[in-house]
Sequence to fold (440 residues):
Amino acid sequence: MQLVVLGLNHKTAPVEVRECFAFSEEQIKQSLHHLKEYEEISECVILSTCNRTELYAVVEDAAEAMPVLIDFWRKGAMTGDTPVDEFLFYHTEEQAIRHLFRVASSLDSLVVGEGQILSQVKKAYSLARSTGNTSTVLNTLFHRAIAVGKRVRTETRIAYNAVSVSYAAVELAKKLLGDLAQAKVLLLGAGEMSELTARHLVASGVRTVFVSNRNLERARQLADKFRGFAVPFEDFMKSAEEADIVITSTGAPHYIIQAWDVAHLMPKRQGRPIIFIDIAVPRDVEPEVAAIAGVNLYNIDDLEAVAEANMRGREKEARAAEVIIDEELAELVAKFRYLAFRPTLAGLRDKVERIRQRELKRALAKLPEATAEERKILENLSKMLVRKIMRDPIIRITEAAGTDKEAYLLDAARSLFKLDDIGEEVSSEKKQTCRRYARQ
Fold:
């Protein structure tokens, strides 16, 4: 079995491609259910965020599984005729483990050090586990990845004054408008991203915040935290007439602000320009909005300048985090290597133990006068003999883990000790019993 990850992220694909692969929670559940039908895939987890969509899987053969995974990828995405293969990355084994560790540690994030990705990794794993799509390998991998993410945040200052995507959006607004004290801001969406954005806005001096969401009560709850104003979702364009900045981060699968909406909006603003900052994936604002006079439109990829500055300030902490990842990777690889030959060693130990117990029982039957102390001595003797005889074979097999000799030695052990002959011990005893009855 091999571990693989197939996906795309902000480094390999622009937002217009990423949004084609953005999965809602319900779509992830449906996809996980569908993936159970693929014989080539024994375990899988789907991680989908605004900056990445990745499929982690345990497969029989990585090379043979790749076209199967890409086929699933194409069927699940709304790409039309757009070729997507050039945007995908494919990692196997240690590379796949390292990639997930870096993701969970926020080293692979658009904004290094942001805190949302770790909870998103947890959620993705929890969802796959609840649908029965994970087992030993991915359970082990994701538990360790989550632990690595926590360790990096605890042992380094990678998250110290961490810059989030929402913070970067506000920094972009400050760069465009300067002082935000007089700016009026409209937030579309009332989720975690919107709340973080609102906090940064208020901290930067914004006094007027409008919040609009399909669930009006959630909009009210968020607006109340910042002395803002809740706006019914069907009326948000009226608030846009007053706003200087519109920041969108909804989970809508389609554009909620279209070009014709903004074209009708601009005359009502009497020449005042407006800034749209779209940090949603899929995007909330139709790209054609950018062509309308007086409008400045930015999407999540436009935040990269802020992200690069963030990365430069965290290079030292990132190096420290990479050291932690190297340590954790070595430990997990060793554990996975043991998992690969554990069934053979377990079968070998079980068989030898059955033989030991059977032969000890026969010997003790011939020594009816043996005392409890003498029986204990014979028990210990048999255990020590087995342990010392098996020591070298087990060491040799263990040392071969991960090398080109691993498969050869595992096959040899199973053949020499007849570990694949189910019921061999029982059938042997039955033959001896039949012979005794025949003699009688």
User: Anything to note?
Assistant: The chain has a mean pLDDT of 82. The longest strand covers residues 2-9. Residues 342-425 form one domain. The chain has three domains: 2-162, 165-307, 342-425.
